[in-house]
Design brief:
With 285 residues, the chain is an alpha/beta fold. It has 2 domains: 4-218, Rossmann fold (3-Layer(aba) Sandwich), CATH 3.40.50.450; 231-284, Arc Repressor Mutant, subunit A (Orthogonal Bundle), CATH 1.10.10. 38% of the residues lie in helices and 15% in strands. The chain has helices at residues 51-66, 79-89, 111-119, 136-148, 164-173, 191-198, 207-214, 231-241, 247-254, 258-270, and strands at 4-6, 27-31, 40-44, 70-73, 94-97, 123-126, 152-155, 177-180, 202-203, 274-278, 281-284. The strands form 2 sheets. It has a 9-stranded mixed beta sheet, with helices on both faces. It has a two-stranded antiparallel ribbon with strand order 10-11. The relative contact order is 0.13.
């Protein structure tokens, strides 16, 4: 993949970072940068999300991407990768900011994700020379660019001492809005989020909470939810809307034959009505 370089002052989308601390004079990138400024949000969080964290990250990132919001993250394992993937799967644009040179994408296990970001019309960005290796302190440094390129930052799941809070700190210094998904008060991986809420961050319980603030012009009258192709699919959708996620429980509540249920579940996934969360857990797209 070809590595390009550009001065932020030369590109409309990038000019927003002109006011960040230690503004980079040059950025390296692979792929395609948006030509004009568009509503943009950084989505960050823990590298080891719970099923709840995975679900809310994928849903909100996917919804925002479908509305035309650019999704920015760091291509790390966990929340970052989920946000990028959800944006790609929703046909949106996503940008990844690396804490190392672009000659070697990091982590290597996310190389395919990086290639998919580029193939879908997005870009991978770094302030470091292409051959600079990944070093711990550089990932803290790059966080100011993650938040600096965005209009706001969303934290979906983070522990009390998560590195994600470093991005929140940069966002505050840059005068950016911080959105936080509330979490279970007994979950250590929600402690960081809940602490930010106590400090005044904006709570998010649906995608519209974000759009109403950063891009109200994108909001359209709510469309009717998919009803399914047959009565069983409609019943499955209703059950999922009630909050049930477990496949066995959904089958029981739908009062359907196991074989027929499995077939309809597969068809609904293929048609983009539902998606699997792993371990026979399901949710609506």
């Amino acid at each position: 993949m070809k590595i390009n370089h550009i001065s932020p002052q030369e590109q409309n989308f990038l000019q927003i970072i002109n006011s960040i601390a230690l503004m980079p004079k040059k950025l390296y990138y692979i792929g395609t940068l948006p030509e004009q400024r568009m509503p943009t949000i950084a989505i960050v969080g823990t590298r080891k999300p719970t099923p709840y964290g995975k679900e809310v990250t994928a849903k909100i990132a996917g919804d925002l991407a479908r509305y035309g919001v650019v999704i920015i993250s760091g291509m790390a394992l966990g929340v970052d990768a989920i946000a990028h993937r959800a944006a790609i799967d929703s046909g949106g644009t996503t940008l990844a900011v690396q804490g190392n040179g672009l000659a070697q994408l990091y982590p290597s296990s996310n190389r395919q994700l990086g290639e998919d970001i580029v193939a879908s019309g997005g870009a991978i960005i770094s302030e470091y020379e292409p051959t600079v290796p990944a070093r711990g302190f550089q990932f803290l440094e790059r966080n100011r660019i993650v938040s600096g390129l965005a209009d706001a930052v969303l934290i979906t799941e983070a522990a009390a001492r998560s590195g994600t809070l470093n991005t929140a700190k940069h966002a505050l210094e840059q005068g950016k809005q911080i959105f936080v998904v509330p979490g279970n008060i007994t979950s250590p991986l929600s402690a960081g989020c809940n602490n930010l809420l106590k400090q005044g961050a904006t709570p998010v319980t649906c995608t519209e909470d974000i759009l109403e603030i950063i891009a109200p012009h994108l909001l359209q009258p709510q469309t009717q939810l998919a009803l399914g192709d047959n009565p069983l699919q409609a019943k499955i959708i209703t059950i999922l809307q009630s909050g049930v996620r477990d496949g066995d429980e959904i089958q029981r509540l739908s009062e359907s034959d196991a074989g027929v249920f499995a077939t309809e579940l597969t068809m609904m996934e293929i048609n983009g009505i539902i998606r699997g969360l792993g371990a026979n857990q399901w949710t609506l797209r």
